[in-house]
Amino acid sequence: MIWAALLLSVDALAQQPPQPAPPAVLSIPTTGFARLDQYRASRIAVFTDDFGQLERYRDANAALKPLAPGENRVVFFGDSITDIWHLDEYFPGKPYVNRGIGGQTTPQMLVRFRQDVIEVHPKVVVILAGTNDIAGNTGPMRLEDIEANYASLAEFSRAHGIKVIYASILPVHNYTPRAQDFFAQRPAEKILELNGWLKNYCAAAGFLYLDYFRALVDDKGLMKKELADDGLHPNATGYKIMAPLAEAAIEKALGSGKP
After folding, report:
1. What is the pLDDT of residues 185-196, one digit of tens each?
2. In sequence order, what are the residues at sequence separation of 6 or more whose Cβ sits closer than 8 angstroms to the Cβ of residue 14?
3. Residue 238 has what DSSP assignment?
4. N or C: which end of the chain has fewer CB within 10 A?
5. Rounded mean pLDDT, 47-58
6. Where are the domains of the chain?
7. What is the pTM of this model?
8. Which CATH superfamily is domain 55-65+72-255 in?
9. Do the beta carbons of residue 156 and residue 118 sit within 8 Å?
10. In the predicted model, is pLDDT for residue 5 greater than 50?
């Protein structure tokens, strides 16, 4: 009887439908920087659902009026340093369009470049990117891959008759407690190497290089303390230095005969 009961129990278990496997847990590898790990964990939905964040400016792009005759529209394209820049305050009356998104890397910018730049029909694009690539916001990146993305953005612009201004990556400082993580994630030697490549690329390809770095750096090779409270993002004083440099580059781009 005992053996018969055991056999019946085994047979009953065998006939039960297979149980579904537990759901997979998406994990973000740690980087060694607490703030960066927290940031990447908070962006899982963006990374999986809208990597380029096309939704951010879709409605704003649709609401833009067609170019007026003689209008020199300029798109400022980049990450948080562009995103938080109130262009209307620093360039009053200018047809300048802000298309910065905080935290973005060049792979994300490539995804949205057609929507947020090409289809906006600017005469000039000012591209400021790369600091978050160095930090690894969307994962580790080799310098040569960042450089390839720089080249792709510029080549897409040229193919559509948009004149390109490439801004240097800004220096970073560690003079305040808020600046420590940002500084540690962005080694100065990588910033210098990318800026050197970018300057040479622009010279060889016929694009304009906008050297914010030299205007913002101190004698230690870091961002001047008074220009960025968190070591990375310019404050009002920092943007006051950057604005005339950008304006001069835009005037030069518009005055040249070729994109």
Report:
1. 999 999 999 999
2. none
3. H
4. N
5. 94
6. 55-65+72-255
7. 0.85
8. SGNH hydrolase (3.40.50.1110)
9. yes
10. no
Average pLDDT over residues 141-170: 98
d(CA 190, CA 175): 19
Which pLDDT score, from 0 to 100, does residue 14 have?
A: 43
Tokens (6 digits) for 136: 């690894």
Q: What does the buried/exposed string (b/e) look like for 116-149 if buried means 16 or more CB atoms within 10 Å of the residue's CB? A: bbbebebbbbbbbbbbbbbbbbbeebeeeebbeb
Instruction: Calculate the dihedral angle through the C-alpha atoms of 215, 221, 224, 228, rounding to the nearest 10 degrees.
Output: 100
Mean residue pLDDT of the chain comes to 90
Which DSSP category does 125 fall into?
E
DSSP-H helix ranges across 207-235: 212-216
Residue whose C-alpha is closest to residue 198's, from 223, 224, 166, 173: 166
Question: If we measure between CA atoms, which residue out of 161, 187, 190 comes closest to residue 174?
Answer: 187
Residue that has been written with the tokens 């914010």 in this structure: 212
Query: What is the distance between the alpha carbons of residues 95 and 75, in angstroms, rounded to a whole number?
Result: 9
Q: How many residues does the chain have?
A: 259
pLDDT of residue 27: 53
State the residue for tokens 């969307």: 138
